Amino acid sequence: MSKILAIETSCDETAAAVIEDGYQILSNVVASQIDIHRRYGGVFPEVASRQHILAIGTVVQDALIEARTGWNELAAVAVTYGPGLVGSLLVGVNAAKGIALSQNIPLIGINHLEGHLYSNWLDTDNRGQPPAQRFPTLCLIVSGGHTELVLIRHHGSYEILGRTIDDAAGEAFDKVARVLDLGFPGGPAIQEAAKGGNPTAFKFPRAKLGDSFDFSFSGLKTAVLRVAQKYTKVEKLRRPTREQKLQQKQAEYRQMPVADIAASFQMAVVDVLVSKTKAAAEKYNVAEVMLAGGVSANMLLRNKMMTALDRPVLVPPLYLCTDNAAMIGAAAHWRLQAGQTSGWDLDVVANLRLA
Ligand code: KG4
Ligand code: ZN
């Protein structure tokens, strides 16, 4: 029995979890800051690090209490050290170092993207055994900061087959949501807005980029902006009052077919993600395909991926798609088994890559 305390503070969730033997979730505590950042229309880095400082102590305590685990039962402490917001990462890494030092247990630095991969290998159905791991595995990591197709030959062996050359998929969702005035975070808002819309109403571009497994979403984002602008050309007053400004915004919004734009945009993103993943799965003849990261919570993506592929497709439960510490603990388990622990010089890295 090996219990790992894991900490994740790379962006706007303060999270801690206790994971046993790499697959059992004894606790998984996430304090989300989304309500605080919503008023800025995105994550405000300085506010994020301050909130992490306020929350980290309680979140770690809660994770231990929920897991009915004492400090002296911990085999190691794992922490995300990058990629992410430097100030946010620092809070988690310093907390983890303090715990490792005071308990005299190993410290394990984990790459946030490697963590996302492992969100698929936790025992979320309480079967009492680890989920089957079938190598080689292909994983599509789609989050607010990343869009990567990763070939995993075995634990720790990652080959990046392709990645975005501009915006990440989640970033495109967030930016388009802002254009459509749907709020933050954009992914869930667009999914909701698209429900009553026609996904073929607008022919948005799908960047192929030849036979490569790279992605590009900036052209799509611009195409959505152009369409939206067509509907926002209501007559402008020279010196509108606040009241008039509000009325104008409402008039513009009423004219815009928001549901159709959202549905057509969502379909364009999903089409590209699915077709590239399918092509890579066939080329490398992988045993299974996994989705990970915030955008993998998207229902259209999950459904289309499962129907398009002729091999097993794993998707994490919704609560493990977005940032959490359970996935960090799962990734840390095999590193601990392999003796790959970190030194006290573990430092935060904003732009760390998986491979
Ligand atoms: O993995 P994550 O929590 O944080 C990062 O590491 O970036 O991903 C957050 C991203 C945001 O861009 C958010 O808009 C997107 O995931 N997202 C979604 C959905 N839920 C969250 N995108 C599309 N559909 C969703 N249902
Ligand atoms: Zn993430």
The name CATH uses for the topology of the largest domain is Nucleotidyltransferase, domain 5
Task: Tell me how many strands there are.
Answer: 10
Bound molecules: 5'-O-[(R)-(carboxyoxy)(hydroxy)phosphoryl]adenosine, zinc ion
Radius of gyration: 21 Å
**Residue share in helices?**
40-55%
Largest sheet: 5 strands, mixed
Low-confidence stretches: none
Gap between N and C termini? 31 Å
Tell me the CATH superfamily of the largest domain.
ATPase, nucleotide binding domain
- The quaternary structure here is single chain
Name given to the CATH architecture of the largest domain: 2-Layer Sandwich
Order of helices and strands: EEEHHEHEHEEEHHHHHEHEHH
**Proportion of strand residues:** 15-25%
| C-alpha geometry | globular
How many domains would you count in the coordinates?
2
Q: How many DSSP H or I helices?
A: 12
Name the CATH class of the largest domain.
Answer: Alpha Beta
Strand order of the largest sheet: 3-2-1-4-5
Overall average pLDDT:
95
Structural class: alpha/beta
Structure characterization notes:
The protein is of the alpha/beta class and 355 residues long. It folds into two domains: 141 residues, Nucleotidyltransferase, domain 5, CATH 3.30.420; 178 residues, 2-Layer Sandwich (Nucleotidyltransferase, domain 5). Helix content is 43%, strand content 18%. The strands form two sheets. The protein has a five-stranded mixed sheet, with helices on both faces. It has a five-stranded mixed sheet with strand order 8-7-6-9-10, with helices on both faces. The longest helix has 26 residues. It is globular and about 65 Å long. It starts with a strand and ends in an 18-residue tail after the last helix. The structure holds 5'-O-[(R)-(carboxyoxy)(hydroxy)phosphoryl]adenosine and zinc ion.
